[in-house]
Prior knowledge:
Layout: E1 16-20, H1 26-38, H2 47-52, E2 57-62, E3 67-77, E4 83-92, H3 101-115, E5 120-125, H4 130-134, E6 138-139, H5 147-152, E7 160-165
Parallel strand pairs: 4-5
Antiparallel strand pairs: 1-2, 2-3, 3-4, 5-7, 6-7
Amino acid sequence: MNTAPSRPARPPLPLAEVRAAGAGDAGAVHGLSRPFVRAGALRDRTLAELARRAADFLVVEAGAEGPVGCAGLRPCADARGRAAVVLYNFCVAPGHQGRGIGSALLDAVLREAGARGAGRVFAATVGSGLLFLRHGFAAGREEEAPPAWRAALDPARGSRILTRVLG
Length: 167
């Protein structure tokens, strides 16, 4: 029997909304990413790169606090040439984790990927990937992943490829 005291669950975030990012969100996405880049969980992307790719992103807004989570979706083709998306730069601000924001963001990512006609979503993680696994992702076979994306993964980081079939 586990006798460790349980931590109280954080209350759900009121008025959280997932929306498409705009060019003005690049600074917020960059700021959200920094702690994860420092920890080695995300690749370092410059503010200019994030601004160029702003249309790739969904952000979660927490009322007046502004964005507290983000995820990028890049359309691509899998190894067989079928429509897919790569999910990248997925993060939720440390002070807002455990409040359903990651789940809401991932649900929105999956809906958006489907709306874009993707049959699969690919992600790479250096962590446990538990959130992804709870949302139907499974360990992916490397040879199924988009070749250019797979080639860009840094083997020194120990990333695991996860995939989710849509539809």
